[in-house]
């Protein structure tokens, strides 16, 4: 009613509702039954009053009263069933919406996540869907019942008295038109308020996650000032929203009082000029008007919630409609276990308005060879790895895998063939086993222990208090950075990927542990195409090829041995100068 769904929103809601059509149809039947009972039972009051006035026997009056009571009890039972069906369908629908939003969120590309903080996404996935839940479980049912009830009451009043029928019809139409128009009045400020609120949640989430750096660099005062500024802005939009909603609700209340006054006045005038209406009929019309006012009143009271739902639906639609910048149309599958990689004149910028991070990058890695990727900080090494993993696609050029543009492969299966160990390792609250298998139940403990053994990490594993059941806290807060990297290694070894990217994977491991797993890394790299991004020359000295990036361009690419023996190469200079030139 006050939610004007546009085509996209309607399609969005319809898609979810259609799945539960059988239950919704049943619900509609109960709604009709409930309305019929609501309309029919007051007739017994009219009959009771008219019979009492006509001096009918007490037994007849008692029967009428009992019938009225019986219908009231049945109506309550119908209401309970309606509520049960509604809450059941609502939870099923909103859980599906939550899952879809979460799935989308996990698949969004880098540019999306750069713009939206995790906190904002929490607010959108949980907060917005919570509002939809309230709407479906309470308002939607009320709205459908209310509108149907209004129509039925107007029809019945027409039937009772033609003149009063016209009066009530005119009042109802005016009321609904006014309420609908008023509904739009607050919608923009509510949307602004919700966006501000999500932004504030995102801010809190980000600052709490970075609390250690904030404390270490004494940024508490700045953080609190920024938070206060956000709260002030939130309060401003909240005030604007409250003001507009206040106007809407008060206008609505005045309008409803007018409806009652005009109806009573009309009945009074009618009774004065034409005594055709009995006391019972007058009471009946009055009773129907009070029933009519209940839905109108609840619509006025819930107008602000409905606007929140409207805004929430817009935001959910926006999230689900976001197609991202990664091409997902590819359907091919990587069949060959040996993978060659070719960067063919690849240029990339993260956003149209940002600087070019990679410029015309071309090189080719034959299947099952390893490449050491070197370059100063910010030269584009991690970006190159992200492009290979297809977290984003290049604006120019192509990345060919076994001769085929990587965009032609089905995204999920393509990504599954690449393993990455990066500088930042995500660990989740749960057991060590869950963090290694990433919740894949089919992986047995024996397989995990075997991998740990192959990696030469048995000593470390033995130090874990409860073996694979050892509890890992959120973000791996009870582990050292090095231990987190060991888990990441085990994780990726277990996946057995065909392309392996180690993005400064050993940066947090101490030299002794690094030496210990060097052999294991060598085993893992065998029969795989690998890219090793490193800040330490020692990490990449055994690779087949070396690629040196400078400000996003290829400075040199050749076999590592050739570069090492070429005194004019940047690589050999780097060896001579202990790497100072590249990392200065
Ligand atoms: N998500 C992002 N959004 C926008 N710009 C980014 C993003 N990630 C990196 N950049 C920019 O891209 C450039 C290259 O970054 P990249 O992380 O690829 O460099 P790198 O060579 O891996 O650096 P490091 O050795 O420090 O890890 C930098 O200028 C950086 O500011």
- What form results from the Cα inertia axes? elongated
**The top level CATH class name of the largest domain:** Mainly Alpha
Quickly count the helices: 23
Bound molecule kinds, no repeats: adenosine-5'-triphosphate
Average predicted local confidence, pLDDT:
83
CATH superfamily of the largest domain: ABC transporter type 1, transmembrane domain
Question: Which structural class best describes the helix and strand composition?
Answer: alpha/beta
Total domain modules: 2
- Find the CATH topology of the largest domain: ABC transporter transmembrane region fold
Describe the main β-sheet briefly: 6 strands, mixed
Low-confidence stretches: none
- Straight-line N-to-C gap: 65 Å
What fraction, in percent, of the residue positions are helical?
A: 55-70%
Membrane topology: Multi-pass membrane protein
Pfam families: ABC_membrane, ABC_tran
Transmembrane segments: 20-40, 61-85, 148-179, 245-270, 276-296
Keywords: ATP-binding, Membrane, Nucleotide-binding, Transmembrane, Transmembrane helix
Can you offer a commentary on this structure?
The protein is an alpha/beta fold and 584 residues long. The protein has 2 domains: 9-319, ABC transporter transmembrane region fold (Up-down Bundle); 341-578, P-loop containing nucleotide triphosphate hydrolases (Rossmann fold, 3-Layer(aba) Sandwich). It has 23 helices and 12 strands. It has helices at 7-19, 21-40, 42-53, 58-107, 110-115, 118-160, 162-185, 187-209, 211-216, 220-273, 279-301, 303-321, 381-389, 411-416, 432-437, 445-454, 458-462, 481-495, 511-525, 537-540, 560-565, 570-576, 580-583; strands spanning 341-348, 358-365, 370-375, 396-401, 404-405, 418-421, 430-431, 471-472, 499-503, 529-533, 545-550, 553-559. α3 runs antiparallel to α4. Adenosine-5'-triphosphate binds at residues 110, 114, 350, 354, 357, 375, 377-383.
């Amino acid at each position: 009613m006050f939610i004007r769904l546009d085509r996209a929103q309607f399609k969005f809601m319809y898609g979810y509702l259609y799945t539960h059509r059988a239950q919704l149809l049943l619900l509609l039947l109960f709604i009709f039954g409930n309305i019929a009972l609501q309309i029919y039972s007051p007739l017994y009051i009219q009959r009771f009053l008219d019979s009492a006035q006509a001096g009918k026997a007490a037994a007849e009056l008692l029967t009428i009263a009992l019938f009225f009571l019986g219908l009231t009890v049945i109506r309550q039972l119908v209401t309970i069933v309606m509520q049960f069906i509604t809450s059941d369908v609502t939870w099923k629908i909103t859980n599906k919406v939550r899952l879809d939003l979460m799935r989308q969120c996990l698949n969004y590309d880098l540019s999306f996540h750069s713009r939206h903080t995790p906190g904002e996404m929490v607010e959108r996935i949980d907060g917005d869907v919570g509002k939809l839940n309230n709407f479906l479980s309470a308002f939607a049912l009320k709205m459908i019942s209310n509108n149907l009830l209004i129509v039925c009451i107007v029809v019945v009043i027409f039937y009772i008295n033609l003149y009063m029928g016209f009066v009530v019809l005119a009042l109802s139409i005016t009321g609904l038109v006014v309420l609908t128009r008023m509904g739009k009045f607050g919608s923009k400020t509510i949307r602004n308020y919700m966006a501000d609120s999500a932004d504030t949640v995102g801010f809190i989430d980000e600052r709490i996650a970075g609390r250690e750096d904030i404390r270490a660099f004494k940024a508490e005062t700045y953080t609190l000032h920024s938070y206060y500024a956000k709260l002030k802005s939130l309060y401003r939009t909240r005030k604007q929203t409250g003001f507009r909603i206040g106007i809407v609700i008060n206008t609505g209340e005045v309008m409803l009082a007018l409806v009652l006054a005009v109806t009573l006045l009309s009945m009074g005038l009618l009774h004065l000029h034409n005594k055709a209406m009995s006391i019972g009929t007058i009471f009946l019309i009055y009773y129907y008007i009070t029933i009519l006012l209940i839905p109108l009143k609840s619509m006025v009271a819930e107008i602000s919630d409905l606007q929140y739902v409207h805004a929430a639906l817009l935001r959910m639609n926006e999230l689900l409609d976001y197609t991202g910048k990664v091409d997902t149309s590819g359907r091919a599958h990587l069949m060959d276990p040996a993978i060659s990689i070719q960067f063919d004149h690849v240029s990339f910028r993260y956003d149209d308005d940002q600087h070019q991070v990679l410029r015309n990058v071309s090189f080719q890695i034959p299947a099952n060879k390893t490449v050491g990727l070197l370059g100063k900080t910010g030269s584009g090494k991690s970006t190159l790895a992200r492009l290979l993993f297809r977290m984003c696609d290049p604006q120019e050029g192509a990345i060919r895998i076994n001769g085929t543009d990587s965009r032609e492969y089905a995204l999920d299966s393509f990504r599954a063939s690449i393993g990455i160990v990066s500088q930042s390792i995500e660990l989740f609250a749960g057991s060590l086993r869950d963090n290694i298998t990433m919740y894949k139940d089919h992986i047995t403990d024996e397989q995990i222990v075997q991998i740990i053994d192959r990696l030469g990490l048995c000593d470390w594993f033995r130090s874990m208090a409860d073996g694979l059941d050892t509890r890992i806290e959120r973000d791996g807060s009870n582990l050292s950075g090095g231990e987190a990297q060991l888990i990441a290694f085990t994780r990726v070894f277990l996946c057995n990927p065909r392309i392996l990217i180690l993005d400064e994977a050993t940066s947090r491991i101490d030299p002794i542990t690094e030496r210990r797993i060097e052999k294991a890394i060598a085993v893992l790299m065998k029969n795989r195409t690998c890219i090793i991004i490193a800040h330490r020359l020692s990490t990449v000295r055994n690779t087949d090829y070396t690629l040196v990036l400078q400000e996003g361009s290829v400075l040199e690419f050749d076999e590592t041995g050739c570069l090492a023996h070429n005194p004019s190469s940047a690589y050999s200079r780097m060896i001579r100068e202990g790497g100072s030139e590249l990392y200065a």
